[in-house]
Amino acid sequence: MKSGIRKIVASYSVVLSLVMLVISSSSFAGAKIDTSLVGDWTGTIEFSGAKLKIVFHVVKTDSGTLSATMDSPDQSAYGIRASSVQVKEDSAFIGVSSIGGAYEGRFSATKDTIDGKWKQGGVTIKLVVLKSAAPLPVVTMKRPQEPKPPFPYKSEDVSFKSEITGMTYTGTITEPDSGGQFPAAILITGSGAHDRDETIFGHKPFMVIADFLTRRGIAVLRVDDRGIGGSTGNKMTVTTTAHTADAIAEIGYLKGRNEIDSKKIGVIGHSEGGVIAPMVASESKDVAFVVLLAGTGMPGSDIILAQTKLIEETEGVDSAFLARQLEDTRRTFEIAKSDKDSAGAAADLRSYFESTIGEWGAEIKKNGGKPEESIDDKIRSLLNPWFRYFLTYDPRPALEKVTCPLLAMGGTLDLQVPAEDNLREIESALKKGGNKDYTIKLLPGLNHLFQDAKTGSPKEYSQIEETFSPQALKIMGDWIVERSRNR
């Protein structure tokens, strides 16, 4: 695949990534439900001679709302869940926040064509999709680890409201079938809007983790993110600090259940969840243990630059092109991280993009886009509150305050949160803070999702049948059981 399409599309398969740039869909808020979008839609993104087929599967749910998944067959990526599906008059919108993308367009008079644009990573590309006359097959990937009922434990769907946040949360709690006063863990998802299973590309890693730990005698609560399922709010409009409050609220809920040992409640965070978990532990005395799965020990801007470099190198991007891309990214981050208010930062970003538009504007025009719109999208993405906060956030001060037992794991093939560098910084911060019980595990051959991988490229995520390494599950389970006994 050519470097141009890689840079513009930013790889559909980069998921659970800390580099997500969010596209707002607020202009469609409150739109009346319209079934014109129900069906299967196909189109092709073209850029720099490369082509990517895109498929949207849109259905009407039993509750009367619209739901959709997206496929990118050329990348063997299927079942990417849409975070927002809306129709307003003659316009349609499909948001896919897990990859920082969105599709927006207008229906033809016959409602069988949508002339629109795909937006991702601050770039806009023309995309016309056609409605299929007959239903298209929905590809189901093999996921042998996904647990199937009947389960040898209790599984209960729950809903609760927090006085702390004012939010209502929906999720699932799994508990051993007998006994009581169980140790428990809450699972914290990575960046993007995820359901309780952290579903991505047909994988349900949090379901697999919950099943494994509950069979080991540990109760597990996994919750839909804000705006997903029955949980209220919108995760993509708040910063990481709000997600910290969500996790603390979930701990409060567990403390109110008689069968849970309130002194043995821990937090397990994946990716951005691994940023949130130490924040929770540093603010709440109710946290008995912390598990970081691909958690970070470096500032967000450093993570994204390292991530970009590793993924691009794995895909064979020209070194000179990559060097220019990294410098461009570094410069825009410096502006976005400035102390200026949003208006001032936006003006500086606009000035910078306009000064470089000759390098990329022609390609945008060639593919039916408008460079001016791309500048607006880039600015909106960079100054999104969540993203701007993440760029500047340094996780080390929070890690220094964590005094409870902590397990940090990372894979050698993690290209999104480079494990060796981040684990080193995590350990350094824990030592500095005086933590007496921490375990650092660098696991050979595992990628960002803790799958046994070949290269670690995000393109492999959907192609790998394994959802979560059995080795990593065992290490985590043994460690939590041991700490729960000691405490």
Q: How would you briefly describe this protein structure?
A:
This protein is of the alpha/beta class and 487 residues long. 33% of the residues lie in helices and 26% in strands. The model is unreliable at 1-32 (pLDDT under 50).
Please give the structural blueprint:
Blueprint: H1 3-9, E1 39-47, E2 50-60, E3 66-72, E4 77-81, E5 84-88, E6 91-96, E7 101-107, E8 113-120, E9 123-131, E10 153-161, E11 168-176, E12 182-188, H2 205-215, E13 219-223, H3 240-255, E14 260-270, H4 273-283, E15 287-293, H5 300-314, H6 319-336, H7 342-366, H8 371-382, H9 385-392, H10 396-400, E16 406-411, H11 419-433, E17 438-443, H12 470-486
Parallel strand pairs: 12-13, 12-14, 14-15, 15-16, 16-17
Antiparallel strand pairs: 1-2, 1-9, 2-3, 3-4, 5-6, 6-7, 7-8, 8-9, 10-11, 11-13
Helix pairs in contact: 3-4, 5-6, 7-8
Characteristic terms for this protein:
17 strands, 487 residues, globular, disordered N terminus, nine-stranded antiparallel sheet, alpha/beta, 26% strand, 12 helices, eight-stranded mixed sheet, single chain
